[in-house]
Amino acid sequence: MKNDNLKNQYRVNEQIRAREVRIVGDDIETTVLPLQKALDLADEKGLDLVEISPTAVPPVCRLIEYSKFLYQLKKRQKEQKAKQVKIDVKEIRFGPQTDDHDYNFKLKHAISFLNDGDKVKAYVFFKGRSILFKEQGEILLLRFAKDLEDYGKLEMMPILEGKRMTIMVAPKKGAAPVKKEKPAQPKREAPKSEEKSE
Length: 198
Hints:
Strand content: 25-35%
Shape: rod-shaped
Helix content: 25-40%
Order of helices and strands: HEEHEEHEHEHEE
């Protein structure tokens, strides 16, 4: 189905409607020719006339084998897709009165997420009347952002959205994301209970 989209995207040979076209190719001098002469030239060389830039005046056509042209396009698209970096967003949830042990535990996880190249979305969730402690939630998030200064940068200050106060921390550009696959851990056998003989 993807090939059909590529095939229908470009006009070839008799499908080209312009009167004049600008010809480009590997061993051809760039010139403007009437369409019929360009088609004759393509036939003479055993190649196809592919319209690569229909909006130009006159339209730009390339002398190339059409199948080779499609192959080069697919290859270029694959390379571009491989260069894209996928960034995940990991969420960390706090309560407005999170104690130090829980805070440090979540901070350690946030540091590992940032080192892996993921963004961290930290939020304080206010249940019921705990919305009265908005200031405590904001102080907690600002402290969290300050503790993560060495590993990432704060993208947005704490914002209250409904019952959630949220911040977003992105990894620093210098830290290259290195995604490691976790090795399979060996299965542990459960200890056998010893039966007492009477």
